[in-house]
Specification:
It is built from 5 helices and no strands. It has 87 residues and is an all-alpha fold. The chain folds into 2 domains: 41 residues, no CATH class; 45 residues.
């Protein structure tokens, strides 16, 4: 029953906040069904591994995006204002 409530509340909150993300329900499921190792962490489970992994993924995405923008040939071309008005 606790698992169903945790997943349902997580999905309900994400739906109300318009940020539905299925792994959020899986995280709630893991927090309840994870066993003694997860239960011993308590609310530290939110910080490690969940928050740490989310921060690392965002930093990796920003790094990859920065590399792609630097390597892109379109990022170095400036468009003059007159070019947009009179092609």
């Amino acid at each position: 029953m606790a698992t169903a409530c945790a997943v349902g509340l997580a999905i309900g909150a994400m739906h109300q906040l318009k940020c539905l993300h299925p792994p959020g329900g899986a995280t709630a499921f893991t927090a309840v069904m994870g066993g003694d190792a997860i239960h011993k962490l308590g609310f530290q489970f939110v910080i490690f591994p969940v928050l740490i992994n989310a921060v690392l993924m965002v930093l990796l995405a920003l790094t990859i995006h920065g590399l792609i923008v630097k390597l892109s040939s379109h990022s170095n071309t400036a468009v003059a204002k007159n070019d947009l008005i009179n092609p």
